[in-house]
Each structure stands twice: as C-alpha cells, then as structure tokens.
Design a protein that fits this description.
It is built from 18 helices and 14 strands. By secondary structure, it is of the alpha+beta class.
C-alpha cells in the first residue's frame, strides 16, 4: 500500500501510518454507529482534525482505494466527464490537473487547436509541440477543458485530475447528509441470524418521497463525492435523472436515496435504478438494480469500513423496497458479485452472505456441480462451526449466479 524505506515512510513510520488509518476507520464506523450523542460528537471532533494530523505527510500511502478520501490527502484519477464536471462545479480551485501522472499531454493539442489559429497551425504541422506548456501559458484550467470538450472527447483525453481534499466536506472524514433522525446503538448491532427476509417482506410498506430540485442536487453531489473519494464510478451515478430522486427512510438511522438514469441514457432492454445509503448521515454503500420482466439483477456494496454493521438487515430492507417499487418476482446476483474475477468478493465471503439469506444457485450447465459443493461446504460448517470455506472453493461457488424466487 505504501513505499517504505526501512520502517520510515517520508517522515511517518509504518506503525504510525497504520495507527492513523485504523483510528480514522474505527472512528468513522463509530460515527455511523454511535452508542450515544456524545460518542457521535467525539467521533466528528476526531475526524474533523485529520487534515491537521496529516499536514506535511506524504499523501501517497493514503491513495489505496480501501483508505483513500481521508481529509488532508488527495485523490487523483482520470474521472469521467460527468464526475469531473461535478467535482469542478462544486469544489472549484481544489481541482487541478495531475501533470505528473499524465502520460499523453499531446492529446491536448486537439482541444487547444479549437481555441486559437496559432494552436491550430501547430497541431496541423509542427512537430514535438509542448502542449502542456501551451495549455498553462494560455492559463487554461480543468473547467476550461470541460467547457471546450464534449463528453466523449474529454474521456478520450484520459487526463488525470487531482482533488485536494484538505478540509473539504466532500472527504470521507467529513461528508454528511442531514439525517431524518439519529439512531444510537445502545444494544448490539443486528447480526445475520437476527434477520428474516420473510419477516421483512411482511412488515409495513416503506414510504418514499420524491425530492425537490435543491435537495436532489445536494444528494447527487454527495453521491459523486462519496464515490470519487473511493475511486468508484457507477453508470447510474454518471447519468442520474435529477428530476426523479427519491428518499426512503429504512429505519435504524438509515436513509436511502435512489433514482433512475436520465431518459437519454436509459438502457435499451432493462430498466436501471441505483442508490446510496447513509447511516446517521454517513455514506456507507450503494446498490444498482437492473430489472426486466419481474426479475431484478442486484448489485449490493457496503464500503470496507462498515462491513460489520448490520449488513444483512440493510440488504433485506433494500430487497423489500425494490420488491414494492418494481414488482419483483425474482432477485438475481451476478457471478461477479459472488467472486468471479473479483477478489474483493472472495475476501469478504460474499457467496455465503447471499446463500445464508436463502439464495439458490441459478439453473445452468454448471449448477449441479455448484449445488453439490454447496451441500458439502454446508455439511462441513454444520460439523465444525469454526470452519471457513477456502478461497479456491469460493471461486468455484461463484461460477453461477444466485437467485431468490419470491
């Protein structure tokens, strides 16, 4: 995760680095799952101090997607046009071009050629033009670039932009949305064994509310910040329908915001919804749902920091909401979500998360072997509760999708 010489990393020992990261992630979890109002306030006090704690520290070790986005650090990536435009519009001078990591500044010539006759002439006939120097000499900025390049052209530039988080309210340390009501965990968090899909589906309907323009803009900005700080982009977050952002209070301090994609970006065969959930105002994860003919293919992700926090209950509530809103007869989880070509899912044991909630291997030529392996692994767990399925077996289990027939 970091380049070290001996035990020192640009003035920060590896021990101190790990302690800072652990402090941040533990405190962020406690802010999302506080046991009291005082604990929530204390957590914010610590988190809001991180820009000062990291002043003068090499930001590179904090660039790993598992820990990126901490206040006082930077994130840098060739974000898509939509994300880059949103970041520039809201964070202004905190956004700059990361020249040190831009390998193709020559591509800027095609854009600069549109702005002046001399640039056009150089682009057409001059060899070895220093386009970075021309760009800076013309005092161009990321905003200028976004205004002069259409989305497709901008994406082809593959230009990395750097977001200096500093004390930004868009950092993971400080990003909050006003929550409907704080929930304090004076009892232990809910485990998977405490969750019943049948009971959730039989509970009262989840009310939803369509947001107005201003609230929608705030939510969609928070969605971009939470995603960009973790180096994640989602089709639905790139092309949301700002006139169709909905809010659903799921309970226990969780507020869900979801939306379709804008009309001009809708898929030809399936309907697409996505959303992000906030626990006591802290973004904790997201989902995407592709629906067609009563079947919903679901992608569900909880950020690393919060994976010990009522995951099964949250998933059950999202299933209930989607069932009510999309008239679902069957849920499906793609093999990638289970671990096929996805080591993150293997590490988290994603297959068993869905299986223990009642999902079954989908019918396919490979499903009979997977079902045999499921039965064998469940028998081993029954005989030895401490047994854990090896990664090699988890990869075999991920060979086919899982389904839940309602």
């Amino acid at each position: 995760m970091a380049r070290a010489t001996g035990l020192t990393l640009t003035g920060l020992t590896l021990t101190k680095l790990r302690a800072l990261i652990e402090l941040h992630e533990t405190t962020l979890f406690r802010r999302a799952f506080p046991r009291s109002a005082r604990e929530a306030r204390d957590a914010d006090r610590i988190l809001f101090s991180f820009a000062d704690r990291l002043r003068g520290v090499d930001p590179e070790p904090f660039d790993d997607p598992k820990v990126s986005g901490i206040a006082g650090t930077t994130v840098s990536s060739n974000f898509s046009y939509e994300f880059a435009r949103s970041l520039v519009d809201r964070h202004h001078t905190a956004i700059s071009i990361d020249w040190d990591n831009y390998e193709r500044p020559d591509r800027l010539g095609s854009i600069l050629a549109l702005s002046s006759p001399s640039a056009m002439e150089d682009y057409a006939v001059a060899p070895h033009v220093d386009w970075r120097a021309r760009f800076e000499r013309a005092r161009c900025t990321p905003r200028w670039l976004l205004e002069h390049a259409d989305p497709r052209t901008y994406d082809l530039l593959e230009i990395p932009i750097s977001w200096n988080l500093g004390n930004s309210d868009g950092s993971r340390s400080r990003l909050r949305l006003a929550c409907s009501k704080m929930f304090y965990h004076r009892e232990p968090v809910l485990k998977r064994a405490d969750v019943s899909l049948e009971a959730e589906f039989a509970s009262p309907s989840i009310r939803i509310q369509r947001l107005g323009p201003r609230a929608s803009r705030n939510v969609l900005g928070a969605v971009v910040d939470a995603s960009a700080s973790r180096y994640r982009e989602l089709y639905g977050f790139l092309h949301p329908d700002p006139a169709g952002v909905y809010y659903a209070p799921l309970g226990r301090g969780v507020d869900l915001y979801f939306f379709r994609v804008a009309k001009e970006h809708r898929l030809p065969l399936r309907d697409y919804h996505s959303g992000m959930y906030f626990k006591n105002g802290v973004p904790t994860g997201y989902f995407e749902a592709l629906s067609r003919a009563g079947t919903v293919e679901l992608g569900f992700n909880l950020y690393y920091t919060f994976r010990q926090g009522e995951t099964a209950w949250l998933f059950a509530r999202i299933l209930k909401l989607l069932r009510e809103q999309l008239d679902v007869a069957k849920f499906s989880v793609d093999s990638y979500q289970l671990g096929k070509d996805n080591e993150e899912a293997i590490e988290s044991g994603a297959f068993w998360f869905y299986r223990k909630l009642g999902f079954e291997p989908a019918s396919s030529p490979a499903s009979s072997e997977v079902r045999k392996l499921v039965a064998r692994e469940e028998a081993r767990t029954a005989a030895n509760p401490s047994y854990r399925t090896p990664a090699a077996e988890l990869r075999k289990l991920a060979a086919v999708p899982l389904q839940l027939q309602l």
